[in-house]
Amino acid sequence: MPSVESILRQLKDKGYRRTPQRERIVEILWESDEPLTARTLHEKVKAVFPHVSLDTVYRNLELLREAGLVSQINLQSRESARFELQKEGEHHHHLVCLGCGDAICLPACPVDLDQLCAQHADEFTVTNHAFELYGYCKDCRN
Amino acid sequence: MPSVESILRQLKDKGYRRTPQRERIVEILWESDEPLTARTLHEKVKAVFPHVSLDTVYRNLELLREAGLVSQINLQSRESARFELQKEGEHHHHLVCLGCGDAICLPACPVDLDQLCAQHADEFTVTNHAFELYGYCKDCRN
DNA sequence: ATCGTTAATAAGAATATACCTATTTATGGC
DNA sequence: GCCATAAATAGGTATATTCTTATTAACGAT
Fold this sequence. Notes:
The structure is a homodimer.
Chain A: H1 4-13, H2 20-31, E1 36-37, H3 38-46, H4 54-66, E2 70-73, E3 82-85, E4 93-97, E5 103-106, H5 113-120, E6 124-137
Parallel strand pairs in A: 4-6
Antiparallel strand pairs in A: 1-3, 2-3, 4-5
Chain A binds a DNA duplex through helix 4.
């Protein structure tokens, strides 16, 4: 099972340092039961580090995303993207409601990545991908 | 074959109005042989409408995207997303180079949308989706 | 053609995100 | 534990994107 510790260890293995702010950011994401906006995350970090800059939050989210440890939800409408931990390397995708903004997790990745990589291997080295469904939930269907 | 006219007609059918600025934006996208950033598009529109606001460009891109007539490239790294016309309703996706930012079109959509829609039909009405591959092209592989 | 309604626009303000630089600090080697 | 090095940070600044409001103009109905 993944934990804050294992995540920080993974970062370390990739050459990143373990800073208190970064640690706190991961903890907050870990403890949250819903995806958070950068803004909300910043507010929560400030409870412990009053002087933490918003840029630090953005930098760490980007870093965690590059490391494959955090996924970003709501790619299209760029209104306040939200972030969540990518638990156990098991990458997944989301169904995002265009009404209320809620997201639900999709159980499986609908893309055969290996095949796609192979298809373009000569001209491209594929490293990752993004996929999202958009629509309206029960409450917002009207 | 799609044309600027047919695109504007489609917009009209959806209740949008035909304004000179909007017309010019579609024309420019139509004539461009590569996807454009909002900024670049704005510059080009200004050649005819010196006072056009950047907001008008953003609004129209969003409107065209919602209408399914324009697709946005580079969803992840929000550094300078680029836009292109979605020709003939034939939606497609992109492989984006994280080095130089170049994008190549993927021939087919790897997602069985009908199946996914059906899978979630009771709780969600799926309207559209986003998919992108990321990686490095030949020149940027180093 | 004119009128009334309402979407679209321009301009400026507000917000979100990215960049820059000097300073701090984590970390590996001694 | 101490030092040197380079990454990370805070704070300020620049840029990108969205929002607000008053005004303009497209379009259907007359």
